[in-house]
Design goal:
43% of the residues lie in helices and 19% in strands. It contains ten helices and eleven strands. β4 and β5 (111-118) form a beta hairpin.
């Protein structure tokens, strides 16, 4: 989903990012718990599960519990579904590598893209309320997820209150992001929608160690249009306009932002 506060990073993601060695204290390397922290961080270097355990200072036995909980990984080939609408809800999934889209289908057969998820983000929260998934999750490239059985996660959350608190924060942020999409679709022009989308995408990628200005789009322009509530022709025309105005360099799916301030000015012009 799109972050509501564009283009400010989710603080939990920023806090969880690895610190340079020069910024680590001697105590970081000294304690057994921090050694477990480092091992876990290497194993899941871009995983959203860090928001469930590492920032809240769980003890080594607690981390071991959580480590065993997410031992199962699943590979999903490009174009395949991780789950479909109506499938029984049993697990949430942390995207380890790759890229996904979520979509819902209307009664007349039209598909609506509801979000794009990359490494370090969670899938499957839609199934909690009804015990069945309310959308499809489709891999946009060969991907891998960590499978987190929800019943076991609930049991662990009840045992460790800090873990429960962090999980509630993640769910709350999903609600806030939904509000952001409503704002995006309800009050922004086409240029503002696409600018906000690109800024948000590069921001999320940059938090995972990628370039802050260059990216390869894993989704098609048609999928972008479905997510932003725009026609394919409008998305293509807006990309061309941004390139003509010197905001972007566009080569098929390769995008380089050449005037970030200009894109931000478009987004900041929105009035609620």
């Amino acid at each position: 989903m799109l972050n509501t506060t564009i283009p400010i990073l989710d603080q939990a993601v920023a806090d969880a990012a690895p610190r340079p060695a020069s910024q680590r204290s001697s105590s970081d390397a000294a304690s057994p718990c921090s050694m477990k922290y480092e091992a876990f961080k290497v194993a899941c270097s871009s995983c959203n599960l860090r928001e469930l355990c590492l920032p809240v200072g769980l003890s080594q036995p607690q981390l071991s519990h959580l480590d065993s909980l997410v031992a199962t990984r699943k590979a999903v080939k490009r174009g395949d579904a991780l789950f479909h609408t109506g499938d029984p809800f049993r697990s949430v999934y942390a995207v380890r590598t790759g890229f996904f889209k979520t979509r819902v289908s209307s009664e007349d057969g039209r598909d609506q893209v509801t979000g794009f998820q990359m490494a370090g983000e969670l899938l499957g929260l839609d199934g909690i309320s009804t015990d069945r998934h309310a959308c499809d999750a489709i891999a946009l490239e060969d991907s891998q997820v960590c499978v987190i059985p929800y019943a076991q996660l609930e049991d662990l959350s009840r045992e460790f209150s800090d873990l429960q608190h962090q999980f509630h924060k993640i769910m709350s942020r999903e609600i806030v992001r939904d509000h952001g999409v409503m704002l995006l679709l309800g009050s922004m022009r086409a240029e503002e929608r696409l600018a906000a989308f690109l800024l948000n995408l590069t921001q999320r990628l940059h938090a995972r160690g990628f370039s802050a200005s260059a990216l390869v789009l894993r989704m098609t322009r048609e999928e972008i249009g479905s997510y932003l509530g725009l026609k394919l022709e409008t998305v293509s025309r807006t990309f061309s306009k941004f390139q003509d105005e010197g905001l972007l360099e566009v080569k098929q799916r390769d995008i380089r932002i050449t005037d970030e301030a200009g894109l931000r000015a478009l987004v900041n012009s929105v009035r609620c």
